Amino acid sequence: MRILVCGGAGYIGSHTCLALVGRGHQVVIADSGVNSSPRVVPRLRRLAGVPVPVHRVDLRDRVALTALFATYRFDAVLHFAALKAVGDSCRRPLEYFDNNISGTIALLQAMQCAGVRRLVFSSSATVYGEPAQVPVREDAGLSVMNPYGRTKLVAEQLIGDLCTSDPDFRAANLRYFNPVGAHASGVIGEDPCGEPTNLMPYICQVAVGAREKLRVFGGDYPTPDGTGVRDYIHVVDLARAHVDALEFMVRADRSLTVNLGTGRGVSVLDLVHAFERASGRRVPYEIVERRPGDAASVYADPSLAHELLGWRAEFDVDAMCRDAWRWQSMNPEGYRTATRREAPSRGRR
Ligand code: NAD
Ligand code: WQD
Question: What are phi and psi of 118, to 5 degrees?
Fold first, then answer.
C-alpha cells in the first residue's frame, strides 16, 4: 500500500515509517516540522534504503493538503501529527485545540474529498483519565485530565462519527501507554525540545551528564515502592503494531480501538535501576512532591490487541533502556549531534 504518514518525522512516526517499509509498503511523509528536526529525514532514508518523500505540510493548510492528495493516490493514512506536551497544553489550550483538532478535521476532509477511507490514529491512554481500575481495558470509562487529553478524546469521537456517517470509512484508534526506547541502530530516537517532561528522556539526559539529577515525583503512592507505576512500551513494538493494525483493518474490513502496552506495571525506581544496569551509569535522583494530575498506577490490558492483531509487545524494560541509552550515548545532543556523514554541512540544527 502507499501510506501517507502525517507527523512521520516525529519520534513514533519515524520508527513506524521504517516498520512500514520493512513490510513492503510505500511511505510518504507530511510533517510541519513543529516538533521534528530536518536531520531525521536523511537518517530515516538511510535506514529505510528506499526513497521516502517528505513534504513540509501543516495539516491545517488545506491547500497544501489537497495538493498532496492530488499528487499521490494513497491507500491509507497514519495520523501522528499532534502537539503532545501535557503541561504546555494547560498553558496554551487554544493552540492545542487548533493544531490537534482542527488539523484532524482538515485531514479527514481531505481524505473524504480524495476518497481515502482507511485511517490509523495515534490516540493515548490519557483518554482513560485516572482509571478506576488497572489493568485498563478498552471499555473502561473515558475522561479528560487536561487540554491535550481533550484533543485525543475529541479526535477519537470525530473519527467515530465519521465512521458512523460513512459506512465505508474504517479507522484504528491506537491507545498508546508510555512509548520509550529507540531503533536498535541508535540512529533515530526521541529528541525532546528543552527540558524533558517525560521520565525516560529525563533519565537519559541525567545519565549522559546533561542534567544533574532526576526528580522523582512522589514516593508515597500506594504502589510497591511508593513511586508511580506505568506501562512502558518499546517504540519498535509500537511501530510494528501500527502495521499490524493497518493490515488487519484492510483485511478484516473493520474499525477497531485497542490498547498498546505490555500489560506490565513498572515503577519510576524500577526504570531508574534498569537504566543503570543497561548503561553502566549512575542516575542520581531525589524524591520530591507528587506532580499534580499524576495517577498512582496505570497499565494496560493489551489482550484485545493480541486477540485481533496477533500483536504482543516483545521487548522488556531492559531492552527499552539498552536502546534508549544507545540512542542517547550516540547522540548526546539528540539530532543536533552530527554523525560523521552529516558533519560537512555544519550550521544546520
Ligand atoms: P512527536 O512530536 O515526536 O511527533 C509528532 C510529529 O507531528 C512531529 O514531527 C511534528 O512536527 C508533527 N506535527 C505536529 N502538528 C502537526 C501539524 N499540524 N501538521 C503536520 N505535522 C504536525 O510526537 P510522538 O511522541 O511521535 O507522538 C506521535 C503521536 O502519538 C502524537 O499524536 C501523540 O499525541 C501520540 N502519543 C504520544 C505518546 C508519547 O508519549 N510519545 C503517547 C501517547 C500518544
Ligand atoms: C511517568 C512516571 C511521573 C518525569 C504522559 C502523558 C500521557 C502520554 C505519555 C501522550 C510518572 C514520573 C516523570 C520526571 C518522574 N503522552 N516522573 N520524574 O505522565 O504517565 O504520561 O506521557 O499521550 O498523556 O500524560 O508519563 O513519562 O511523564 O511520567 O518521577 O521527571 O514518571 O510522575 O509516575 P505519564 P511521564
Answer: -130, 120
